[in-house]
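C-alpha cells as discussed.
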C-alpha cells in the first residue's frame, strides 16, 4: 500500500521536475541559437580582419571551425588571414589541406605556391609554379613569379628558357624588358 502511494506521489513530481528542466521544447531552437552564435563569430572575425587585427580574426575563425556549416569558409578565411598576418607556414598548412580536398583547384595551388615562396620553401614553390604553368599556363603571373625566383637564385638557364616561353605566350607582358635586363646582369 505504501509503495502504491509512493508511486502515485512520485509520478507527478517527476513530471513537474522534468518539465521544469526542459523549458524550451521548441524543435530546432538550440541549433538555431548555435548557428546564430557562429554566424556572429564569423562576422566578428571578418570585421577584425578588415581592421587588420589579424590575431583576433584568427581566434574567431578558429572558433567557427567547430560549426560544420561554417567550417570550409572559416578555414579558407583563416588561411587568408594567416597570409595577411605574414604567418606563411601556418597559411601553407591550411592551403595544403584545402588543396588535398580539391587537387585541381588553380586558385588554391597558386596561393600555396605563394605561401611556400614567402616562407622560404622555394623548391616546393618551384614545383607548384611549374605545375601551374604545365597544367594551366593561362596567367602570366605564374611565369613572372617563377622567373623572379630563378633570377634570385641565379638560375640563368632556367630563367632564359622561361623568359622565352613568357614572350611567346604573353608578348604584351610589361615586365619582359625588366626580366631581360635582370638576366643580363646575372650574365655579366
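Sequence:
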Amino acid at each position: 500500500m505504501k509503495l502504491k502511494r509512493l508511486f502515485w506521489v512520485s509520478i507527478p513530481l517527476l513530471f513537474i521536475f522534468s518539465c521544469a528542466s526542459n523549458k524550451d521544447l521548441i524543435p530546432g531552437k538550440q541549433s538555431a541559437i548555435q548557428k546564430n552564435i557562429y554566424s556572429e563569430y564569423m562576422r566578428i572575425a571578418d570585421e577584425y580582419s578588415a581592421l587588420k587585427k589579424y590575431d583576433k580574426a584568427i581566434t574567431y575563425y578558429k572558433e567557427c571551425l567547430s560549426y560544420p556549416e561554417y567550417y570550409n569558409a572559416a578555414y579558407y578565411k583563416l588561411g587568408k588571414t594567416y597570409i595577411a598576418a605574414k604567418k606563411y607556414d601556418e597559411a601553407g598548412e591550411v592551403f595544403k589541406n584545402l588543396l588535398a580536398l580539391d587537387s585541381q583547384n588553380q586558385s588554391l595551388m597558386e596561393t600555396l605556391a605563394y605561401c611556400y615562396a614567402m616562407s622560404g620553401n622555394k623548391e616546393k614553390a618551384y614545383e607548384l609554379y611549374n605545375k601551374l604553368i604545365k597544367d594551366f599556363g593561362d596567367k602570366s603571373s605564374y611565369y613572372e613569379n617563377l622567373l623572379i625566383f630563378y633570377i634570385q637564385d641565379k638560375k640563368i638557364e632556367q630563367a632564359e628558357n622561361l623568359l622565352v616561353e613568357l614572350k611567346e605566350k604573353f608578348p604584351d607582358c610589361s615586365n619582359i624588358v625588366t626580366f631581360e635586363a635582370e638576366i643580363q646582369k646575372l650574365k655579366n
